[in-house]
Specification:
mainly beta, five-stranded antiparallel β-sheet, 5 strands, binds zinc ion
Length: 99
């Protein structure tokens, strides 16, 4: 039997080229495999999409040089970001496990 639940996450984006900021709310489907492992699938308008911290495109200048972070995260709770999507991923997973 699988564990599955959904939540909504607000993400904030900032373009590092033109400094545009915008946000987006994504549906997140969490699936546990019953062995303590967990996967999160992001959906935009009901369609599976890439994770918010990868593949973002600036709506203004079309740059892919975009920084993303979860808006629900408390200010000051964010580690310094170099460019690591891996870092964001790790912290995201940690946050899920903290629930
Ligand atoms: Zn831009």
């Amino acid at each position: 039997m699988q564990d599955a639940w959904s939540s909504r996450e607000a993400w904030v984006y900032e373009c590092l080229c033109c400094e545009t900021t915008w946000d987006e709310v994504l549906e997140v489907r969490h699936c546990g495999d019953g062995h303590g492992n967990e996967a999160a699938i992001y959906e935009r308008d009901g369609q599976p999409c890439t994770t918010p911290w990868t593949d973002s495109l600036c709506p203004k200048c079309q740059s892919r040089n975009v920084k993303a972070w979860a808006a629900s995260r408390k200010a000051g709770d964010m580690p310094p970001v170099r460019d690591g999507s891996d870092v964001a991923m790790v912290f995201h997973l940690r946050r899920i496990h903290a629930w």
